[in-house]
Amino acid sequence: MIVNDIIDALFLGLLIGACFGLGVAVLALRLRARDTQDTAPSTDPMMEKIIETVEQMARAQSELTGRLDGMAATHETARSELTRTLTEQLTTVSKTVADNLKDTGERTTRTLGDLGQRLSLIDKAQQEITALSGQVVELQQILDNKQARGAFGEAQLADIVRDGLPESAYAFQHTLSNGRRADCLIRLPNPPGPVVVDSKFPLEAYQRWRGAESDEAARAALSALRTDTQKHATNIAERYIIPGETADAALMFLPSESVFSELHSRLPDLVEKCRAMRVYPVSPNTMALTLNTVRAIMRDVKMREQAGLIQNEVRVLMEDVSRLNHRIGKLRTHFGQAEKDIELIETSGRKITSRGERITGVELEDKTEDGGKNELNLPDPSDG
């Protein structure tokens, strides 16, 4: 649209220039004709025709100038309207752009804030992962060292036992009659009796199996794991199952759920051999479940002991009730004799009352004129 306005302005300038040139030519011809009339009359028809044509062109120029002025005014009005419209649209667009920029800025600020928080969380998580990696390395070092591994297993077992049983129900590092020291002794009532839990499971072969880089190395490590586990179970059965002192079974604590799972999935026959020796493998989770069962058994035994005490108290109470019934019988006998005595007393009272009534109704008889005595006629006692 701007290009069209430029073209119209150029065309208008050309027209104005042509009209200006034509007006100058007409003016020059008129001046020449006036000079000619002053010097000598001319009746040249060609000149008159030219002058007439020039005058017509001048009139046409005047009309054209008027039209051009109207067009210029119209163009100015259109330009003003266009400028106003463009200004309003530009204002609207500017406001819209400003609002969008503001919203975008706010969203960007919020996004950057959220991103900063997430980066902070990521950084914190990275630090925790780094710390955890260090702990994993330390745990790996512990598992690689036999003595440290035993201490780790004992600590893990101790935490589980302390959480699952009262303090009186277990003992750590308990020495048995054969001189062997049990990692943990669970004091179950007879039967079955105290149960020993061993926490020194051999993990060397398991670590080699997990880190094996070839199938041959993995098979060799798995075979070593079988041998070490069976030997360990045999030692537990020989050392910690003592007839008359401990239960006829013992627990072999595995310090990892993965070890427990791999042992059952890859060496199920070995697990059956351990069970045949009365040595039962337990993981941290199964150990916790076992302790729940032990706690229930102890609660049942305690309830039975309380039931025995209650039975004794009931027996004594029944003896007291029997003695009370005997004494009540004697008291009833005394009450019966007393009742008979009361009846006899009532009978005597009635007799005495009857005699008193007779005495009250006595008749005094005077002697006759012959000088006899007065007689008191008492009723015969046999009458009443």
Structural account:
- The protein is an alpha/beta fold and 384 residues long.
- Among the domains are: 81 residues; 157 residues.
- Helix 2 crosses helix 3 and helix 6 packs across helix 7.
- The protein starts with a helix and ends in an 8-residue tail after the last strand.
- About 5% of the residues have low confidence.
How do the strands and helices of this protein lay out in sequence?
Layout: H1 2-39, H2 45-144, H3 146-164, E1 170-175, E2 181-186, E3 195-198, H4 204-210, H5 215-240, E4 250-253, H6 257-266, H7 268-276, E5 279-282, H8 284-360, E6 364-365, E7 375-376
Parallel strand pairs: 3-4, 4-5
Antiparallel strand pairs: 1-2, 2-3, 6-7
Helix pairs in contact: 1-2, 2-3, 3-8, 4-5, 6-7
Oligomer: single chain
Roughly what fraction of the amino acids lie in strands?
A: 5-15%
In whole angstroms, the N-to-C terminal distance is: 161 Å
What is the alpha-carbon Rg in Å?
Answer: 67 Å
Q: Overall 3D geometry?
A: elongated
Low-confidence stretches: 38-42, 364-376
Percentage of residues in helical conformation: over 70%
Instruction: Summarize the biggest pleated sheet.
Output: 5 strands, mixed
Number of helices: 8
**Which strand order do you get reading across the main beta sheet?**
1-2-3-4-5
Number of strands: 7
Average pLDDT figure:
78
Succession of helices and strands: HHHEEEHHEHHEHEE
**Structural class by sheet pairing and helices:** alpha/beta
